[in-house]
Amino acid sequence: MKEWCHILIFDKNKGMLKVGVLGAGHLGKIHLRLLNESDKYELVGFHDPDEINAKKVADEFGYTYFENINTLIDEAEVIDIVTPTLSHFDCAKKTIEKGRHVFIEKPITNTLEEAEELLELAEKHKIKGQVGHVERFNPAFLAVKDQIKNPMFIETHRLAEFNPRGTDVPVVLDLMIHDIDAILSVVNSEVKQINASGVSVISNSPDIANARIEFENGCVANLTASRISLKNMRKSRFFQRDAYISVDFLEKKVEVVKMKDAPDKPGDFDMVLQNAEGEKKQIYFENPDIEANNAILDELETFADAINDNTEPVVTLKQGTNALRVALQIIDSFNK
């Protein structure tokens, strides 16, 4: 009986990726918990430069604390970087140069030059990388993403109550970059022009920002982000030919309004509009199914799948770099 149980335990761990976490702050602790519970990872341990906090986390949750970052990287197959943005590059570079796969919280790095160097290193060392743009895994966005086809106008509002955590970077890199990444994932065109403005109210970097992004194909995106609002809001609206799609990332709700050619004999309850040219359109509503999920767990586990199946991660290092490039162009335009 003991021998049979041992075989079961061995099979359970088969295929699990050994993962280490860098950073044990607010988000880092969430990642640690989810990775520890996941059946796709075996949590090796974590490293945090704040020894007092690290030992507190280790004592409270039982995770193994590695005082030396290099030792942790050596023990793992995957490294999950949940540290402040300024340290992303150094942590990722060490990880990649040791041939380990890397998951990096957004933004990928602090500068575009750092991100591009990581791209080169990842290709050189043949490793996979994913960036933590978690809104890609929001169930509301997943429910309608395939219906967002060739949008021509996009409007986003991402408003948050003030929280000192994250104010080490401008609001564009802290909040707006989520929407930048989501927009780039559905607009199949290069950026043509960016106009933006940002205002610092509490922090030394802008706390409120608005950006207008024009794409080569004619699509226009108007983005607003604030981290000093009285209420939280995370909404995006997509307008395209014969359709309007609204995504509430916070409440995890969607609205889909579509139009089609009106029938010759509309029903009593059909909503029909007629434009100036005399064309008649029927308006109808769709209610896509929204499947509840844990977006952070999903982004981590799909990365494990990409490694095990040798497929492309959902949010690649290149995509994370593209989002950072646009974010930095927005910040640069503040002073123009």
DSSP summary, beta strand count: 14
The biggest sheet amounts to:
9 strands, mixed
| Secondary structure category | alpha/beta
The helix tally amounts to: 10
Radius of gyration: 23 Å
Question: Could you say what the CATH topology of the largest domain is called?
Answer: Dihydrodipicolinate Reductase, domain 2
- Unreliable residue stretches: 1-12
Beta fraction: 25-35%
GO molecular function: nucleotide binding; oxidoreductase activity
Domain Gfo/Idh/MocA-like oxidoreductase N-terminal: 17-133
InterPro entries: Gfo/Idh/MocA-like_OxRdtase_N, Gfo/Idh/MocA_Oxidoreductases, GFO_IDH_MocA-like_dom, NAD(P)-bd_dom_sf
Organism: Flagellimonas maritima
How is this structure best described in words?
The strands form 2 sheets. This protein has a 9-stranded mixed β-sheet with strand order 7-8-9-6-10-11-12-14-13. It has a 5-stranded parallel β-sheet with strand order 2-1-3-4-5, with helices on both faces. It has helices at about 1-15, 25-35, 50-60, 70-75, 90-95, 110-125, 140-145, 170-185, 295-310, 315-330; strands at about 15-20, 40-45, 80, 100-105, 130, 155-160, 190-200, 210-215, 220-225, 235-240, 245-250, 255-260, 270-275, 280-285. The chain is globular. With about 325 residues, the chain is an alpha/beta fold. Helix 2 (about 25-35) links the parallel strand 1 and strand 2. The model is unreliable at about 1-10 (pLDDT under 50). It starts with a helix and ends with a helix. It has 2 domains: about 1-135 and about 300-315, Rossmann fold (3-Layer(aba) Sandwich); about 135-290 and about 320-335, Dihydrodipicolinate Reductase, domain 2 (2-Layer Sandwich), CATH 3.30.360.10. It contains 10 helices and 14 strands. Helix 6 runs antiparallel to helix 10 (about 315-330) and helix 8 (about 170-185) crosses helix 10 (about 315-330).
